[in-house]
Amino acid sequence: MKKLTPVNPKHVKRLSLKFALLLCLSLSLAGCQAKSTSTTDTAVATSTNAAEHVYHIGITQIVEHPSLDEIRAGIEAGLKTQGFDTASNLEIDYENAQGNMENTQLIAQRFDSQKKQLVIAITTPSAQAAFQTIQNSPILFSAITDPEGAGLKAKGISGISDMTPIQKQLDLLKALLPNAKKVGMVYNTGEQNSVVQVELAKQLAADAGLELVCTGVSSTNDMASAIDQVLSKCDVFYAHVDNSLAAAFPLLVQKSDSAGKPIIGAVEKYVTDGALATDGINNYQIGYQTGLMAAKVLNGTSVDALPIETIEKTECLISKKTAERFNVQVPEALKSYLID
């Protein structure tokens, strides 16, 4: 039998050391590769997620006016509270129709072609144009007085109604101006929401022993002469929710001051802009509630699963400055509603 040569312990030590070094090097390279792959995958995932979470919505508004701008500001605020922020993950494409009905259609067509994830329409004309035109996006409306009468109670659309509390406003009118008998109104005959309010006001005024003096116009250009005509026949002017009237409100305030006829407004903004008083809804709140509903849609809720909501809470405001200008004696029970 061949005799085995003993292994030199020094050789074993060298081999063990070489093996250990090779093993460490292999593990180190594998770890670096895994780390590099993990980092790359994370970067790709982050980039993909960022792209997926930028939401694109369109907002269409019939005309530029502080009351409607407040609604839009409320929409953005409502969305922000739910995690949709224009500073990070939300892109809003805002379009103003400048009071032109043809423009509302053009805006709707563009939004439809771009397949916005959501379209929000402020006021009835813009909402009607969006509903008639848009096929590729869910639609929400904001500040629609009579959704059903406007043909907007249907599939694919929902939103917030701002039906004006006319009864409360006529009650306030009588409390502040007990000697008033004739109430003036000017409205756009082409606005469904405005026509509905006028018809309701006629009925409620008659029940309250008031005479309604109304004049209808077909465009904002006719507002000046219509306001003059009505102010010459009434004791007080009632400014309801009408887009043409809202656009001409500074002119109305100027003319009512000259005629010595105070204005009872339908919304808070009218009081801060020169009306005597209101017991009405807050435009910002209308927009805020719309924004909350919009967030639900962006989070995956079908617009058909969202019932139309109505703003019911009202706020009474009386302008101290305007009351003094028209020598209106505010009853003690209403003095807590005075604002500077």
Keywords:
disordered N terminus; 13 strands; globular; four-stranded parallel β-sheet; 12 helices; 340 residues
**Average pLDDT number:** 87
Largest sheet descriptor: 6 strands, parallel
Encode the helix/strand succession as letters: HEHEHEHEEHEHEHEHHEHEHEEHE
Strand proportion: 15-25%
**Quaternary form:** single chain
Q: Given the helix and strand composition, which structural class is it? A: alpha/beta
Poorly predicted runs of 5 or more residues: 1-51
Determine the N-to-C terminus distance.
Answer: 119 Å
Shape: globular
Which sequence of strands runs across the widest sheet? 2-1-3-4-5-11
Rg on CA atoms, Å: 32 Å
SS element count, helices:
12
Q: How much helix, percentage-wise, in residues?
A: 40-55%
Q: How many strand elements? A: 13
Describe the protein's architecture and organization.
By secondary structure, this protein is of the alpha/beta class. It has helices at residues 9-52, 66-81, 101-114, 124-133, 166-176, 192-207, 223-231, 243-247, 249-259, 268-272, 283-298, 320-325; strands spanning 55-61, 90-96, 118-122, 139-144, 157-161, 182-188, 211-217, 236-239, 263-265, 277-280, 309-310, 315-319, 338-339. Helix 6 links the parallel strand 6 and strand 7 (211-217). Helix 3 packs across helix 4 and helix 7 runs parallel beside helix 9 (249-259).
